[in-house]
Amino acid sequence: MSKVFIALQTNEDSRPIVEAILADNPLAEADYQPAMVKVSAEDTLVIKRETIEELIGRDYDLQEIQVNMITMSGYLDEDEDEFRLSWKN
Amino acid sequence: MDMQVKKKKLGLKEKYAHMTRGLDWQPSYQTKEAVFPYATYEGIKVHDWDKWEDPFRLTMDAYWKYQAEKERKLYAVLDAFAQNNGHLGLTDARYLNAVKLFLTGISPLEYMAHRGFATAGRNFPGVGPRVACLMQAVDEIRHSQTQIHAISNYNKYYNGFHDFKHMLERVWYLSVPKSFFDDAFSAGPFEWMVAIGFSFEYVLTNLLFVPFMSGAAYNGDMATVTFGFSAQSDEARHMTLGLECIKFMLEQDPDNVPIVQKWIDKWAWRGVRVLSLVSMMMDYMLPKRVMSWKEAWEIYFEQNGGALFNDLARYGIKMPECLSRASIDKEHASHQTWSILYQYGGAAAFHTFMPSDEEMDWLSAKYPNTFDKYYRERFTYWREQEQKGNRFYNNTLPMLCQVCQVPMAVTEPDNMLQISYRESDYKGEKYHTCSDGCKQIFDDEPEKYIQAWLPVHQIYMGNCFPEGTDPTVEGFDPLAKVLEWYHLVPGKDNMDYNGSEDQKNFNAWRGLATKND
Rounded mean pLDDT of B350-364? Predict the structure, then answer.
């Protein structure tokens, strides 16, 4: 097992994203560092469009994450509904 | 951000297929080999370019939209920073020396990366990587431009920011990052992707941008942290491209595995050596520190890189051997590199300084195995000498490694009293390298590395003086002439931070900002 992670700038755009990740991935942990937040989990991390939309009250395109993303680790698979990071082993 | 999201007519996967695959065409009046002449000579075998997929499934229309949003955010912050005298909110102007190193050593490489990805994109026969390389080429020129714009604000107030491009091509330690990119750029398109796309972007860029930019935020440098994170938001895409490229090569043909392994070994080690400059930025140049170089190495290389190599093991890829040495060097890299820059601080393009007692205590706590044992006494002695008016400047020139170009002042991993060096013979000449990693790289392609432009050798050959210099005149001062050729004014742009113009100005301006008289 290896960890995957995504780091985002800390701002009002990414606050609901982090909230959604923590809600959808019970084993994920958020680590707040100066100006950034890094969310990691063992093996897989999923970001769901629907959860973010519920939190922000508007339609959301997962590609908007591009604007606030700092770095990530793991293989990515992205479609309209999910942004999924995992190690395939 | 308040973005309007329209209902999509096409799904992401479908749209990606149309706007990458669907844009390709087959040449009719030229052969494919003639259109893509560099696609095969490196020995990488590709059977099906359509197997290449960008996991972000980013298409050009979405790319422009999000990049424009990033630019708007960035330039709003830069304006606010300049309008509100943001530079006076820094922890200390000592910090700016890290920014000078960034501007001279890193920003021009972003431009080189732009050229490299444009070239790689041109040379790949597959449309998937061509589109991804095009986006990365545009990203890289954006990074170069935004960094120059952000940092230009400091050029209005502080020394050393005046001529970064001129310096990159001349100043001795800047040949370390410059030669790294020149080496990659002069390789073929697949090696370029392993060098920059994979080793640099995926394995090493986190060590440069993440802890350093967090450090900039910690030290009140809003301009740098904003361009840093704006750039880094592209890096996540670059890392993904690098990783996809490796996976693609490994899956296309088993014959590719040993070639890829050799490149990974080479570029991981080249990267480690370049990053020694970052190690000293983190441990010595940030007045307020976020984490030590060693901690950053453990998180971003050992854990994150470890996870990656565990995964690549299924293709038969092994962790590069030279990295076991890097795990020992992590305890020494920043201290030894800072020692080099400190003693050659009379020829650097920024100010150097010894750490305070409090900073040395921090270093002891972060490096319990090495700092007190090997470095504290030397640094304390240098500081005492400086206080007595006897600041130590080394006036001899160090030998450089033929491959990484780092001065040979790094010790053997198992013997701190022995400088690490290796020797190779080629066509009747001796060549010196700093480590087994660099020696292997040299021995594999000697014809390439004997052409290296080594700053110290060039100075001795008389190639680093302003035009018309006569080195035979009595009382000739070679260092003064080299600095003139570098466009550096001794004492103003370099030497010790204590007593510098930057120090005096910053303290005076900050005093004015907080008092009424």
Answer: 97
A1 shares contact with chain B (CB less than 8 Å): no
CA atoms within 13 A on the CB side of B65: 15
Per-domain boundaries in chain B = 48-352+394-466+476-509
Listed in sequence order, the residues at least 6 apart from A26 whose beta carbon sits closer than 8 Å to its beta carbon are none
For residue A56, what is the nearest residue in chain B, using CA coordinates? B2
The interface pTM score, or ipTM, of the predicted complex is 0.84
Please name the residue that has the structure tokens 């370390």: B176
Number of separate domains in chain A: 1
All residues at 6 or more sequence positions from B459 whose CB lies less than 8 Å from its CB, including other chains: B172, B397, B478, B482
Q: Which distant-in-sequence residues (6+ apart) come within 8 Å of B481 by Cβ?
A: B464, B465, B466, B469, B471
Q: How far is CA B138 from CA B113, B144, B228, in A?
A: 10, 10, 16
**The amino acid at B134:** L
Q: What is the pLDDT of residues B204-223, one digit of tens each?
A: 788 887 777 778 888 888 88
- Residue given tokens 């007045």 in the structure block: B287
Do A71 and B290 lie within an 8 Å CB cutoff? no
> For residue B183, what are the contacts with CB-CB under 8 A and spacing of at least 6?
B195, B270, B448
- What residues of chain A lie within 8 A of the CB of B204, using their CB? none
CATH for A16: 3.90.56.10
Question: Domain containing A17: what range?
Answer: 3-86
* Cβ atoms B251, B50 nearer than 8 A: no
Largest CA distance in chain A: 37
B50 to chain A nearest CA, in Å?
17
Q: What is the pLDDT of residues B482-499, one digit of tens each?
A: 999 999 999 999 999 999
For residues A18 and A47, give the distance between their C-alpha atoms in angstroms, rounded to a whole number: 9
**Is the CB of residue B315 less than 8 Å away from at least one CB of chain A?**
no
pLDDT at B2 over 70: no
CATH topology of domain B48-352+394-466+476-509: Ribonucleotide Reductase, subunit A (1.10.620)
